[in-house]
Amino acid sequence: xxxxxxxxxxxxxxxxxxxxxxxxxxxxxxxxxxxxxxxxxxxxxxxxxxxxxxxxxxxxxxxxxxxxxxxxxxxxxxxxxxxxxxxxxxxxxxxxxxxxxxxxxxxxxxxxxxxxxxxxxxxxxxxxxxxxxxxxxxxxxxxxxxxxxxxxxxxxxxxxxxxxxxxxxxxxxxxxxxxxxxxxxxxxxxxxxxxxxxxxxxxxxxxxxxxxxxxxxxxxxxxxxxxxxxxxxxxxxxxxxxxxxxxxxxxxxxxxxxxxxxxxxxxxxxxxxxxxxxxxxxxxxxxxxxxxxxxxxxxxxxxxxxxxxxxxxxxxxxxxxxxxxxxxxxxxxxxxxxxxxxxxxxxxxxxxxxxxxxxxxxxxxxxxxxxxxxxxxxxxxxxxxxxxxxxxxxxxxxxxxxxxxxxxxxxxxxxxxxxxxxxxxxxxxxxxxxxxxxxxxxxxxxxxxxxxxxxxxxxxxxxxxxxxxxxxxxxxxxxxxxxxxxxxxxxxxxxxxxxxxxxxxxxx
Length: 508
Prior knowledge:
The protein is of the alpha+beta class. It is built from 20 helices and 14 strands. Helices cover 44% and strands 15% of the residues.
């Protein structure tokens, strides 16, 4: 207010409004209004002492409040104030007044009303949090640039940021999604980047970390809880709708958006992460931080010894998921199928997915571990998980039939091999049924029956079955083959002369 006291002193000295305007202290119109105001208070009298700044401020404040009563939004002041307290933005308030309350004024009047309401509010006091070395880190996701993935599709990237609260040293990684697997993998790489682990991580309530947000009793995602146990850090989620509790990493995300991403040429995600690592170690890490007034890398050199050591063996931090065992004795995950025992069909089981394996659990008991499918749509099946009849059916394939025939004898092996080599028909079922005859009649009789069928060149299941049913396998094999018996004459006519005598007019 010292400028107004200076103007008042010059008015007492007799300066005109034009002279005040030429001096640059106040415009002519404003000087005229100010002259009238101080004259009404009797302050232009040279024998009176100049008013204090507080008196001038009170007078000018009354004048501003008097002018604000002329606002076109004044009839809706109470409603606008309620909306401002609820956090509704100005453009939304203006649209609501136009649509539902008959207001016809401009947005500028609404904006001035909102500014006046906010200026009258008492600002909320806050306290800056201070952290000891190694005490805590803060984690957050922030929106990254749009990039094309391996399929050429343009997608949004996300910046995973972990900031050590004492030193402000950061780990930054850009990823495609905010899934549980990505969240856990970023934590592991962040700890390896620092070479140590903070004792506490302050996070928000993202679904990849907290499945039920609550100020007092939050529910931690199962896989993230195992990660905390493996690395021995504590999870400290912020209360819902209170991101100020992790303001350090919030400011770090803004710094990345404003100080790293602009004016940068990016080829792909790998190139973006390489540039981010270089920027953290050379630009962000060596700058003088605005709060600590030290370089983050300089403070990190002091903080590192106070952090928790990495475990000698990295913990298995696979993700957990519920899956249903379907009628085909398989569960589906990531478009691939994994078998489970047929006795669990219809039940929902927990599966733990790591980089290389998928483990199945039923009632907290381990059931089986499959290797991770290498491609989408792959079926990972253990035959012991299938029903007995289905397992037997799948087990009796061509190789099984040939192996079983070999144990019966050479004739049986030749007969089964001839069946399976049929160029037109698939004879696997016939081969399986021929081998089953050995359970009824014994391997020796089946071998003899196959030898007789081969002798008479009848490669049919029915032939072997009839030979066994009639006991013909126990008869000696003929010394001549059917081909030798009928090689020189017809089967039912001894010679051609008998044919002509039997049919005298046949050639006519």
